[in-house]
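Working notes for the structural subgroup meeting. M.R. asked for a predicted model of this chain before we commit to crystallization trials. I am recording the input and output together here so anyone reviewing the notebook later can reproduce the run.

Input as submitted:
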Amino acid sequence: MGNKEERVVPVPAINRMPFYLAFVKSLKRAGKEYVSSTLIADYMGIDSTQVTKDLSYTDIVGKTRVGYEIDSFITILNDFLGFSKTDSAFLVGAGSLGSALLHDTGLLHFGLDIDTAFDVDADKIGQTVNNIEILHIDQFRDMAAAKNVKIGIISVPVAHAQSVADLMVAWGIKAIWNFTPSRLKVPEGIIVEDTMMYSNLAVLFNRLYRQENK
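Returned structure, recorded in token form:
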């Protein structure tokens, strides 16, 4: 991809791209062959120049007065976002949220395979959820190295999040998907992506109450 590989893609642009991809896939299912930046922008509720700028970070190229060819759009954006190959991950914390993630077979469509789950609860250890085995966290260390797993998912109570992150880093994990409200402290070079439902819920409530009080 030439110099485009060296460009830093803004996080907001990356956050929008899966929505672009889902929309264009829906057009493909409807039998469409081309899509314009204007059509994508209308769907997203943003300006078409923003869509064009976002896609400029990829190798997607449109045709004047025609738009983007849908098949190549999907292929290129899938590759760009990392969805076209599968990476294995270990999950720590097989409670209600962790179990929900284990049941989410849709993650495989986006390139993530939760290989094994870990916990410290004796009642959970030895069980399987969606054919994924739950092991004691002490087994994480050797398995991460043996299976060359670089992605860890944390869905433990907030009080244990940092200690789990410390173990993950020590045992070779390079990227952490954090589902707790804890702000993890990790060494430079370790990637952390926070997904905090409570934060999103706070925004939802705030917007709802402000609208009701107008």
